[in-house]
UniProtKB/TrEMBL annotation:
GO molecular function: methyltransferase activity
UniProt enzyme class: transferase
Domain Methyltransferase type: 41-130
Keyword annotations of the record: Methyltransferase, Transferase
GO biological process: methylation
One matching Pfam family: Methyltransf_11
EC number: 2.1.1.-
Record InterPro entries: Diverse_substrate_MTase, Methyltransf_11, rRNA_Ade_Mease_Trfase_CS, SAM-dependent_MTases_sf
Protein name according to UniProt: Class I SAM-dependent methyltransferase
Entry's family note: Belongs to the methyltransferase superfamily.
Length: 254
């Protein structure tokens, strides 16, 4: 499938996406934001996992922009404190210099980097933060790595791969982007999940969502077998990581 087609595959699994995908580790949001007294744009917000995490952290002014109607419907229903808007990273429906932070969770790899960076710079106030996040089951644990193999998570050409987001990772913005030097961190936690839910979580990623139904069912069956063989408990204590990168909007364009 083409990259745009894969990027639009998530709406078909919006309910499962919201129920099964990991929210960011709370410490990651504290590291990204200078305070809770800020206006935050959750860009490519999906079903609102980050928007709700921001609200739980005390951020009162959250704008969530999401292009997929099905994903945005779940967001609006379950994140009543956020203003949910239709829009894309390449055409953000907000005025110039209107937000203090722009966060994009498991989404930046789907954006056009030149157009998205220009739009983010436009809506950010000087000194504002661009924060990019990826939350995922941590492949440093061997059975998780085996599940990722079933999911084809780190195949060459997979835009959704998190294989490169480890401690010290870097994001390259387009030349001339009005941002300072970036920095990154990785935060970890463990969460209990039903074994069937861990297996089903693989089906919320584009590499599995875009398979034929019988192939998706086989991935889920194989994942359940891995969990039974390698972990042997139900529920399962799943190691999750949130990798984050941030850069500050300079006071003037370069």
């Amino acid at each position: 499938m083409t990259r745009p087609e894969r990027s639009r595959s998530f709406g078909a699994a919006a309910e499962d996406y919201d129920r099964l995908r990991p929210a960011p580790v709370p410490a990651a949001l504290r590291w990204l934001l200078p305070s809770s007294e800020v206006t935050v744009l959750d860009l490519g917000a999906g079903t609102g996992l980050v928007s709700r995490s921001l609200a739980a952290a005390g951020v009162a002014d959250v704008v969530a922009v999401e292009p997929d109607d099905a994903m945005r419907a779940v967001l609006a229903a379950r994140s009543p404190g956020a203003r949910a808007l239709a829009g894309t990273a390449e055409d953000i429906p907000l005025p110039d210099a209107s937000v203090d932070a722009v966060l994009a969770s498991s989404a930046w790899h789907w954006f056009d980097p030149d157009r998205a960076t220009a739009e983010v710079a436009r809506v950010l106030r000087p000194g504002g933060v661009l924060g990019l996040l990826w939350s995922f089951a941590d492949p440093a644990t061997d059975w998780v790595a085996e599940l990722r193999h079933l999911q084809r998570a780190d195949d060459a050409g997979n835009e959704d791969s998190t294989s490169g987001v480890r401690a010290g990772f870097a994001i390259d913005l387009p030349d001339g982007a009005p941002f300072g030097a970036g920095s990154s961190e990785v935060f970890r936690r463990r969460t209990w999940m039903a074994a069937d839910d861990v297996a089903a979580m693989l089906g919320t990623y584009s590499t599995v969502l875009t398979l034929r139904p019988e192939e998706r069912a086989e991935v889920r069956r194989a994942a359940r077998e891995v969990i039974a063989r390698r972990v042997g408990t139900d529920p399962v204590r799943v190691p999750f990581a949130t990798a984050v990168w941030r850069a500050t909007r300079l006071a003037s364009d370069i």
